[in-house]
Model the fold of this input.
Amino acid sequence: MRHAEQAVPSGSVLRYNFNERLTHWITAISYIYLLMTGLAFWSPWLFWLAVILGGGQVSRMLHPWVGLIFTVCVLMMFGMWAAQMHVDENDKNWFRSVGYYVRNEDEQMPPAGRYNAGQKSLFWGFVVCMVLLLLSGVVLWSPQYFPWHSLIAMRIAILVHASSALLTIGLFLLHVYMGVFAERGALDSMVHGDVSLHFVKRYHPGWYEEITGQTTSPKK
Amino acid sequence: MSQATLRVQKISGHAGSVPGKDAQREDTACKLIDTTTCIGCKACEVACMEWNDLPFGETVFDNTYQTMPETRWNYWNLILFNEHEKDDGSLMWLMRKNQCMHCAEPGCLAACPADGAIVQYTNGIVDFQQANCIGCGYCITGCPFDIPKMNPKTHRVFKCTLCSDRVSEGLEPACIKSCPTGCLHFGSKDDMKALAEKRAKQLREHYNFPQAGVYDPAGVGGTGVVYVLHDATKPELYGGLPADPHIPWSVRLWKGPLKWLGNAAMIGGLIGLAVHYLRFGPKEREETIKEPHEGAEP
Done:
């Protein structure tokens, strides 16, 4: 993060370097493919998603491979961000007053650091679901090749795969909503890498103090 | 395999109604297997492979009269063998011709996500349409009898078709035609049930099998294959025939409550986010952000 390899406009600060942005978008594209094909297998009413992606057979064949790409990307994100996602006491307070956050009364919230508690939860949610999806997905991929081919394992794997996928859909909807609609500037930061200091001060006061040494206006 | 002459009443992974459903009524086709007169000759196994033109694979000799441990994607009909020791110490050879049971409520069809990969005809035959199969293997998890098997090369799943192509032309399935002892019968479900009950009664009253009975499990809505067993209270003895088969609880949970919960959560989530945006909007409007910020850093 401190490579300073990228020039940013004045009044801005680098939030995501090139590697982080690239990993994020490969994850995003692979996730959307997995989501579309997965939903096709989830409900007959959405099977057309598989049809527009090349047909049911192609979707079934590619879904596990794209799943591996997704897995590798989430692991890379884990390597890049896990240290910053440590949940502390402040995050627990953040969740206690999450109602203010929902009503956009952010000035009532405990000041968030580089990531707020919601963002940290999203990160850990995706990591845990990725592990569950990987384990259950491997069982479902080609059961005939496993010597321990077991119907019980497959039956449990189907439930685990569907449930954890549903959890990621919830996380995904919130993530897209927050990043694209609610928190203006967040999407830009994942495209260009930089955020304005105004953005930092507005959404991540703790991080603002960290990089500027200035205290933000204290909570009223 | 032969939808041209058979009408369909259930379709897997299908959104909307089933075309032609209830347009015609048909008798339910049924195969009766009398395990008490089966001699384990394997004529049905050969006839099945021959009629369905299945490539032959290696057999597995395990010191019994069984051809291989279980059915395969290219071996749909297998006589399971069990040397059963009775309470008095005497031995009994139990032979059960194992194949798809053609359940009235097929678990394979319930689990299948591919439109039209599994159909149930109005005569009750459950048939796989490999052209529509996507090779996910979900049908394998839905079957309480462990019948569907995947071809690992083509990733398509196969099983007994009850010779739907022959039945649609008014012929009996190949296995029935080949049976030399007459332990296999084919006809309408009502006729086969009557014949099976008559045989079971005969076994109870004249052959000293007081527990003899008919296997037509209600848990899957009844089956298109019914057995006469010497001891209907212990179907497990016949190569692990389940006493009370159901569509597995995991598949029912997945296709039932989890599905409705998941759909409600997804649709509710989308609506909730849209309503939140209309009520509260973005945390900060773009025009505010673009204002020159006070005391900007160098």
